[in-house]
What we know:
Layout: H1 16-24, H2 28-31, E1 45-49, H3 53-59, E2 64-68, H4 72-81, E3 87-90, H5 98-102, E4 107-113, H6 121-133, E5 135-147, H7 161-169, E6 173-182, H8 186-190, E7 194-202
Parallel strand pairs: 1-2, 1-4, 2-3, 4-5
Antiparallel strand pairs: 5-7, 6-7
Helix pairs in contact: 1-4
Bound molecules: S-adenosylmethionine.
The site of S-adenosylmethionine (SAM) has 20 residues, from loops.
Amino acid sequence: MTSAQVSGTEGYASEAEQLFQRYESIGAAENHRHVLHLIPKAPARVLDIGSGRDAAWFASFGHRVIAVEPTDALRIPAMARHPSPLIEWLDDSLPDLVRLRARGETFDLVMLTAVWMHLDQTQRQYAMPNLASLIGSGGTITMTIRHGPVPPARRMFEIPAEETIALAQAHGLRCVLNVASESRQERNRAAGITWTNLAFVKADASGSFSR
Ligand SMILES: C[S@@+](CC[C@H](N)C(=O)[O-])C[C@H]1O[C@@H](n2cnc3c(N)ncnc32)[C@H](O)[C@@H]1O
């Protein structure tokens, strides 16, 4: 299967050059200001799904990163821009994450920034248990979900925060963050785009939540 056929990636390859430059110009720390307190301080195992700039940001703190990105035209330049031995790039996709899950690894942090709204409801229902299986006990999943007008040729869905919170809860994940925010990018703010920032934690071995 070519990356152009991965559901959710519609519209990315044809605009990849401009999008890559734009995503690289966004400051990761500022972009993730709502979840900075949830990012492990000591070197940890991080999975970034729909990746790019953030893989390099995590690696700069000593985290080992698996960067999943199904769009070749975004993943290949990102690999060239961020050649770190701490980052492994993987051509894989939600909802199944077949290649990643075949490895049987778990992560301390799984991040999906501006990705979840590319999945339809059925795909989200398949994806959530897969995500839950990828974090160890005490692990965290963060998501940002975009709202507002959909760019031409892209595939996006309007997802209420409550739906994702209920879905996560059904798979043993407790919501620890639910914050609505404005867009940081001027052009997106002007277009009326807003964001939901969510984070979930998994119960530890004793069945309790560490946060
Ligand atoms: C808006 S971009 C965000 C990229 C990056 N997280 C950032 O914040 O700059 C959305 C990304 O999700 C990826 N994507 C789309 N559908 C996907 C799927 N089914 N599985 C994994 N990634 C997907 C796209 O290829 C694209 O890189």
